[in-house]
Amino acid sequence: MFAAGDRFDEAHPKVFQNGSSVSMRAVDSQTMSPIFAVLALIALATAFVAGAALITGEIRPSRPSPTLVLIGAAAVAITATAGSLFYSESAGFIPCEFCWYQRIAMYPLAIILSIAAVRRDVRIWPYGLALSSIGLALSCYHYYLQHWFHGTTSCAAESPCTAIWVEEFGFVTIPFMAGCGFICIAMLMIVLARCGQRGVAPVSTPTSAPATPAPAAQRQRQQQRQRSVTGVKASEMTE
Q: At what angle do helices 29-56 and 66-85 cross, to 10 degrees?
């Protein structure tokens, strides 16, 4: 059985430090993991910047461009999907139960956000926010299982949820990378909801000559009638 904190042995890449055997495929994770870790930290920093911009009111309708926000979110989802496939298909890491749950949340994001970016459809943000929020919760719980949980889980013995396959910079594990992707996408969806708003244009009315106020028009007509009556009386007097 595996316990929280069991790590993949870098000296013997096919054996955990507790001696259990895993996939016999060639592992190239030592080369790619630092790259994925840096990308994850960049995604996390992007999420913090987006949150700060929302708080300070820098995000406004059409600022930044909703299309750029969609492209960025799609790029994060595609990169996360590619990373998960690399670890399972190239490095030979067997996904645990919670890894699959996170994949269920991330893989659809890569598809729907890409389509939305092509169509420039800002209405995708509620669906992207819902999936990324669920995935973030799963990633946080998986990270907790890896570092602080002591007990049994529902994960299979050959792919334990508590084992740490990758740990870069002393804290960046695979669930941490996934969580960075999810939180970045979630914040970008909130930004998209704000910058994708369109201001309501005032209703335009046909321009016309200003109408003469009714009382003034009536006074004018009365004056004209009085002049005409006075003229008629003057002419009768002269006759």
A: 150
CA–CA distance, 163 with 145 (Å, rounded to integer)? 9
* Positions in the chain short of pLDDT 70: 1-27, 151, 153-154, 156-157, 198-217, 229-239
Chain-centroid distance of CA 132 in Å reads 7
Phi and psi for 15 in degrees, rounded to 5?
A: -135, 135
